[in-house]
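Hi support team,

I've been running sequence recovery on a batch of backbones for a student project. Most finish fine, but this one hangs at about 90% for roughly twenty minutes before it completes. I'm not sure whether the input is malformed or the queue is just slow. I've pasted the C-alpha cells below so you can try to reproduce it. Let me know if you need the job ID as well.

Thanks,
M.K.
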C-alpha cells in the first residue's frame, strides 16, 4: 500500500518534497485537483465534497493513509472526513492533516510567543489554527491571522518577484510586523515558494514555519507509533503524480515546484 498526498492544486508538491526527503524509502501517490483549484474561496460544503472525492480516489488506488497537504482542505474538511466518511467507507484507513503538526511545533517551541498566520480566505475564516492553538493551552489573543487571497495566483503566475508582487506581499505582512509577531506560520503550501522573501520582510527575529516540514516530521513519528500501518506500506521509493488537469500550464508548474519533470497521469473526480 502507498502513502497518499492530496492538495487542491500543485502547491502540495512542496509538502511531498519534504515527505520524500524524510521518508525516502516509501512509495508516494500525489493527487492535485488542478481542474477545480483553488479551493480557498469556495464554500465549506464544496471543499468537503471535492476533498472527499479526492481521498476516496486515493484509497481506491491503494493508499493506506492520506495526508491532506492543503491547509484549506485540512481546515474545512478533515474533521468531518474522519468522523463521518472514514467509519462508513474506509474504516481501516487514515486521513491526516497539515495543521496539527504546525500547532504542535508552535506549542513545543513558541508557546509564549506572538503568533502570525497567513493563509487563504477559507483557512483563516475557518479558525482551524485558532482551535488547535487553544486546545494546547495557548492564548488566542496572541494570534493574528491575515487572509492573503492574491498570493496563490501571484505565485502560480510567477509574479512574486515583480514590483506589484513584492508590494502586495509587503501589504499583507505589514499588520503582522505592526503586531511584532515572533513566529509566522505559512498557512498555505504555495507560500513555501516565497518563504525566503517572507523571512526577509519579517526580519531575522521572526521564525517562519513551513507547514510541509512539520508535517513530514510528524508523519515519520506517526508511522513509528503505528507499526500496523507502517508494515503495510510498500518501499520502492516510487513517486506517482495524478491530476485532474494536465494542461501545459500545469506541467510547467509541476516542473517549477518539483524541480524536474514528473510524469502526470490525468484522472477525473466525481
Amino acid at each position: 500500500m502507498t502513502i497518499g498526498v492530496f492538495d487542491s492544486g500543485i502547491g502540495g508538491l512542496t509538502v511531498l518534497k519534504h515527505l520524500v526527503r524524510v521518508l525516502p524509502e516509501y512509495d508516494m501517490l500525489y493527487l492535485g485537483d488542478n481542474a477545480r483549484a483553488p479551493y480557498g474561496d469556495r464554500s465549506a460544503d464544496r471543499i468537503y465534497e471535492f476533498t472527499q472525492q479526492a481521498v476516496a480516489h486515493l484509497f481506491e488506488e491503494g493508499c493506506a493513509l492520506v495526508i491532506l497537504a492543503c491547509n484549506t482542505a485540512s481546515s474545512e474538511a478533515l474533521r468531518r472526513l474522519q468522523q463521518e466518511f472514514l467509519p462508513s467507507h474506509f474504516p481501516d484507513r487514515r486521513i491526516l492533516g497539515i495543521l496539527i503538526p504546525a500547532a504542535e511545533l508552535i506549542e513545543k517551541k513558541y508557546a509564549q510567543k506572538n503568533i502570525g498566520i497567513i493563509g487563504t480566505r477559507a483557512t483563516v475564516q475557518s479558525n482551524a489554527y485558532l482551535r488547535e492553538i487553544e486546545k494546547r493551552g495557548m492564548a488566542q489573543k496572541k494570534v493574528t491571522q491575515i487572509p492573503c487571497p492574491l498570493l496563490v495566483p501571484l505565485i502560480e503566475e510567477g509574479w512574486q518577484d515583480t514590483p506589484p508582487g513584492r508590494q502586495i506581499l509587503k501589504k499583507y505582512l505589514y499588520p503582522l510586523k505592526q503586531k511584532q509577531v515572533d513566529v509566522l506560520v505559512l498557512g498555505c503550501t504555495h507560500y513555501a515558494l516565497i518563504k525566503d522573501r517572507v523571512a526577509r520582510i519579517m526580519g531575522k527575529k521572526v521564525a517562519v514555519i513551513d507547514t510541509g516540514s512539520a508535517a513530514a516530521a510528524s508523519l515519520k513519528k506517526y508511522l513509528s507509533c503505528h507499526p500496523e500501518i507502517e508494515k503495510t506500506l510498500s518501499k520502492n521509493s516510487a513517486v506517482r503524480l495524478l491530476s485532474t488537469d494536465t494542461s501545459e500550464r500545469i506541467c510547467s508548474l509541476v516542473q517549477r515546484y518539483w524541480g524536474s519533470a514528473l510524469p502526470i497521469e490525468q484522472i477525473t473526480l466525481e
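--
Follow-up from support: It reproduced on our side and the slowdown came from queue contention, not your input. The two ends are 23 Å apart (CA to CA). No action needed from you.
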